[in-house]
Amino acid sequence: MSRGMHFATLRLIVLTLAILSQLYLFVRIRRVIKSLPGPDLFKSSAIFLVGITILLLFGTNRYMMFHPIIRIHPPIAAMLFLFYLPAVWAFGSILSASMLFLFDFFAWLGRVIFRRFHNSPRTELSPINLARRHFLQVGLGGLAATPFIISGYGALYTRKAFEVRELALSFGHALRVVQLTDIHAGIYMTKEEIRRLTDRVIELQPDLFVLTGDYISNSMQFLPGCLEEMARVRAPYGTFATLGNHEHWYGEGLSRIRAVFSHYRIPLLINAHQLIRSENGVFAVAGIDDLFAGHPDLETAMRGLDPHMPVLLLSHRPEVFPLAAEYGIRLTLAGHYHGGQVKLSLPSGDISPAHLVTPYPQGLYRLNASQLYVSSGIGTTFTPVRINVPPEITLLDLSV
Question: Using an 8 Å Cβ cutoff, are 355 and 307 in contact?
């Protein structure tokens, strides 16, 4: 990784923020409960229940994120209480705690400034306005709830509202290429949802269909169902795929992964290439292994190719781009970062977790005569929430 924060560092920071958020929200809620009228026993019981609830929601989300799922179709109640509710809480709690912390900080700063400039024995304290205090508490409660509403919307709607993003690029051959990446088949990306995506890809009538890794989330058992749907696409020049880091993490061995791809007759390009003859001549589709989790070898993938031949390179991660440009590769397609999944668009530019760890978070990049397109992908990881980064089917209209 040439620049930006290392992913492991970012993950540690996010985990630390998540834990601190749980503690901060508990302290905040505890303070509110203790200020309410009523018997101390009732308040103590309420505080205990709040603590247990936070612990269960946060702990369940952490467990489900990092452990393989043993059932492909869990009951609806399990989906709600074991997956969606903890996921929405985990993400929303970070935003909510951050907003409340900023509110508390500026309120404290305002009090410090007020006392600094009104430090006089003659200053009389104004009587407490209970109506105003109640109004502020209600407003603050609404402010704290907003992130959870946004998180729920991002989990239940935005992550499913995929769009077709079309680009016109020069390549050397006139082709319609459709790219899918980061499907992450699993609890949050069911086979039915993948079928809907596949139907849309078929409607686009691609000449070439390419897949750039992360077909599963955290269990190998979802790979056959995913590839069964991908195999329904019958592009004239074929379908080609390469691997992502999740296949290496959860794929239970390269030989088994290859066997599943072979069963569904989807060529898997791992440091290899395939020549394709079109009406405009011959071009090559090359693929390399995941840059960090696998054993990438671009030299082997390009071996034997005419240096003047147009090459379409498939790479799960985009950081291969500078090296691809040195080889004169016309177009590289990648994914991995999901566009950050949650992105804040400002006049000065976009901010997302992806922008902190890579110079290629999403979109089109050019270096000399080479081009890189980084798709925002289809699925999600760590949290099933997308905000301001819709899932994407990429359609590339390539020209001579």
Answer: no
Question: pLDDT tens across 110-161, in order?
Answer: 888 877 776 655 445 555 555 555 555 555 666 677 777 878 877 777 888 8
Q: Is the pTM of this model over 0.90?
A: no
What confidence tens digit (pLDDT) does each residue in 258-267 have? 999 999 999 9
pLDDT band at residue 252 using 50, 70 and 90 as cut-offs: confident
What are the phi and psi torsion angles at 356 (to 5°)? -85, -20
Burial class from Cβ neighbours inside 10 Å (0-12, 13-18, 19+) for residue 228 reads middle
DSSP letter at 195 equals H
Q: Cα–chain-centroid distance for residue 230?
A: 21
116 to each of 84, 102, 103, 104, 113, how far by Cα in Å?
A: 48, 21, 20, 18, 5
How large a percentage of the chain has pLDDT more than 90? 54
In this structure, are strands 349-351 and 344-346 parallel, antiparallel, or unpaired?
A: antiparallel
**CA pair distance 354, 234, nearest whole angstrom:** 33
Provide the 10 A C-beta neighbour count for residue 114.
11
Please give the distance of CA 356 from its chain centroid, rounded to a whole number: 14
Distance, in Å, from the CA atom of 338 to the CA atom of 152, rounded to the nearest integer, reads 18
- Rounded-to-integer distance, Cα 151 and Cα 385, Å: 6
CB 316 within 8 A of CB 181: yes
- 365 touches 375 (CB < 8 A): no
Paired strand residues for 283 = 276
State both tokens at 58. Answer: 């946060």
CA distance 377 to 392: 5
